[in-house]
User: What shape does this take?
Amino acid sequence: MTNPPPVHEAAHRRDWPSYFDRMQGKPPRDTVLKAIDLFGEIDPSNPLHVVDLGCGDGRDSVPLLNAGWTVWAQDGSEDGIARTRARPEIQAALENNRIQINHANFEGLQVPKADLVNASFSLPFCPPDHFQALWTQIDAAIAPGGRFSGQIFGDRDDWAIIEDRSHFTRDETLKLFDQYILESFIEEDRPSRQSESMHKHWHMFHIVARKRVTAS
Ligand SMILES: C[S@@+](CC[C@H](N)C(=O)[O-])C[C@H]1O[C@@H](n2cnc3c(N)ncnc32)[C@H](O)[C@@H]1O
Assistant: This one.
């Protein structure tokens, strides 16, 4: 019997329906959970706002809603947006106007103001000639004292040679966050756990960072 292809193979091909099928039931990303934790309990009379960029099938939007956030979720995949909408927690939040779901690409995106911008495993899929504009939008959207959570993919990752992917060296990544305090910065630089025939080298930075209140 042959093993099914690893889930990263679907992401490699941008086959998002297969990716979501394979990721179904997975817990929220550690970076978003860390950010939720760092903000602490939310006063319901003063809700906090999060932008969930490349929200996929809504995996991270749900714990944010459960923690009392209002959510502006965005993804370029029609299938991802449909799966996000179909989640019971999201349907309830749509009825209460606690979530806005946007089917939109990163290219040309206007990012609204937020206390947190979460981008889990999505920014590497922004084409490089659009990354700087997107990053400028992200940085401008985050309020002083607000946070970013998510991943930047590194230059030693196997996908760094793919033309439409955005990858950065460690120094370039740190430069993106030079006006932020790094609350968690974990570099992963390792071979995949699959067999040799399904090998991928992963290089990524898992980041939770707080925007400085005054520029240094
Ligand atoms: C690896 S998935 C991550 C999904 C989810 N955030 C998670 O952590 O499971 C990458 C997501 O980025 C979205 N994406 C890829 N390229 C995009 C683009 N150019 N514009 C908007 N979304 C895009 C995909 O549709 C997909 O949902």
About this structure: Helices lie at 7-12, 16-23, 30-39, 61-66, 78-86, 88-95, 128-141, 170-176. The chain has a mean pLDDT of 95.
